[in-house]
Design brief:
Layout lengths: L1 E2 L10 H5 L2 H10 L3 E3 L4 E4 L2 H7 L5 E2 L21 H8 L9 H12 L2 H24 L2 E3 H6 L1 H11 L9 H9 L8 H27 L5 H7 L1 E2 L2 E2 L2 H32 L1 H9 L4 H11 L5 E6 L3 E3 L2 E3 L4 E5 H4 L34 H18 L4 E2 L18 E3 L2
Parallel strand pairs: 1-2, 3-11
Antiparallel strand pairs: 2-3, 4-8, 5-13, 6-7, 8-11, 9-10, 12-13
């Protein structure tokens, strides 16, 4: 165990955020668990440990199913933040069994493989339309013109959100997701609270409308889902819809632009992909690994655990470094090299265990569809300007990605 102030972990430093991977290599060399005082967390940088801890039931996304804040040695969140926490804490990502098991089972009744498969033609048609518009314009911002509108439209279509209301979704999502960064500011919290209130009110009205007139959408499916008398409460439906929207597009948006930025920086791999579109499935997995859209995932220690001879006590918080784990040379040959043909690729970008991303199949469809559409319709797609990295560390992305189609 290392506990030092000189750790090469600087999540608020733009230089670190721009390229954290060399620092991750040093962290992995320092040890399996590292104490980081600024966030009061234990950093876990190696793949084997992260993969094991994601499945370890001594850890939890919440502790409130077993302890009060005081019993756990934690300070309750400020009352002013309550709307955010009510929304966040009723979603299955931040719940543990038995509530997590019940909600995920009910959501799975509506979010079925058949539901996802039925969206495939819509995803491919929309991806082609967006790529075509980019070509007609002679280029543009790949983030705003393709990466963002595709998954937002798909999850909105799936949920049954009217097209006229969809521009509301991305700003709400961005404001809420600000709270997942390390040590968010009070200004960030205030934005998240406002978005939580507005988004919840909007969904409450939409749920009421679907109760009166059900459709084929996911909201109607969540209302109808039941099992042995269990049903989702209205708050659970609202929190689930927000989680599916936020998780259903944030990772896909960032994986798309991070991926194309990586391709532009590795022209040999981009050339190989252009020459052989059959590489798309493995390319999607490799780009998710190479520049991971979710860099860090937190868990609470519910019962003492030991890592490499160090006891991590109940009440502590562990920060699993997904980006570091995905570059661990113990698991990935030449991890710093982008290899679109990589077959042995057990990346953990979609997490693992009971909190494995329920939307992973849909994300893969979207990423493959947008990549294929751009390869087909914009075979000479090129970088127009060096992109600016977003200042966020946990959710890793770009401010934009200017491209030309020559």
């Amino acid at each position: 165990m290392t506990a030092a102030s000189d750790l090469p972990f600087a999540p608020w430093d733009p230089a670190f955020v721009a390229d954290p991977y060399p620092a991750y290599a040093e962290l992995r060399a320092r040890g399996r668990v590292l104490r980081y005082e600024p966030t009061d967390q234990w950093l876990v940088p190696r793949h084997a440990d992260v993969a094991a801890l994601l499945r370890d039931r001594r850890l939890g996304r919440t502790y409130q199913h077993r302890f009060t804040h005081e019993e756990f040695g934690r300070t309750p969140p400020p009352p002013a933040h309550e709307p955010f926490h009510v929304l966040n804490d009723h979603g299955m990502l931040d719940l543990e069994p038995p509530d997590h098991t019940r909600i995920r089972r009910l959501v799975s009744k509506a979010f079925t493989p058949r539901t996802v498969e039925r969206l495939k033609p819509y995803v491919h048609e929309l991806a082609g339309r967006l790529a075509g518009a980019l070509v007609e314009a002679g280029g543009g911002d790949l983030l705003a013109d393709v990466a963002e509108p595709l998954p937002v439209a798909v999850i909105a279509e799936m949920l049954g959100i009217p097209e006229a209301d969809r521009p509301l979704l991305r700003p709400w999502s961005a404001a809420i997701c600000g709270m997942y960064e390390l040590n968010p500011s009070e200004e960030t919290a205030a934005r998240a609270v406002r978005a939580s209130v507005e988004f919840s009110e909007y969904l409450r009205e939409l749920i009421a409308a679907r109760r009166e007139k059900p459709g084929e959408d996911l909201i109607s499916g969540l209302i109808a889902a039941h099992d042995e008398g269990d049903r989702l409460t209205e708050q659970e439906m609202i929190s689930t819809a927000v989680l599916l929207l936020n998780a259903g597009h944030e990772a896909t948006v960032n994986a798309t632009v991070n991926g194309w930025w990586a391709l532009f920086r590795n022209p040999d791999q981009l050339a190989a992909l252009r020459a052989d579109h059959a590489l798309v499935p493995t390319a999607v997995e490799e780009l998710m690994r190479y520049d991971t859209p979710l860099q860090l995932f937190e868990r609470w220690v519910l019962d003492d655990i030991e890592i490499d001879g160090t006891t991590i006590p109940r009440g502590a918080e562990i920060a699993m470094l997904f980006g570091s784990a995905n570059h661990d040379p113990e698991v990935f040959a030449a991890p710093a090299r982008l290899d679109l043909a990589r077959r042995d690729n057990p990346h953990i970008s979609f997490s693992a265990g009971i909190h494995y991303c329920i939307g992973a199949p849909l994300a893969r469809i979207e990423l493959a569809a947008s990549m294929t559409a751009l390869l087909d319709r914009a075979p000479a797609l090129a970088l127009a300007a060096e992109p600016e990295r977003k200042p966020n560390f946990v959710i890793r992305g770009l401010e934009g990605l200017a491209v030309t189609v020559r």
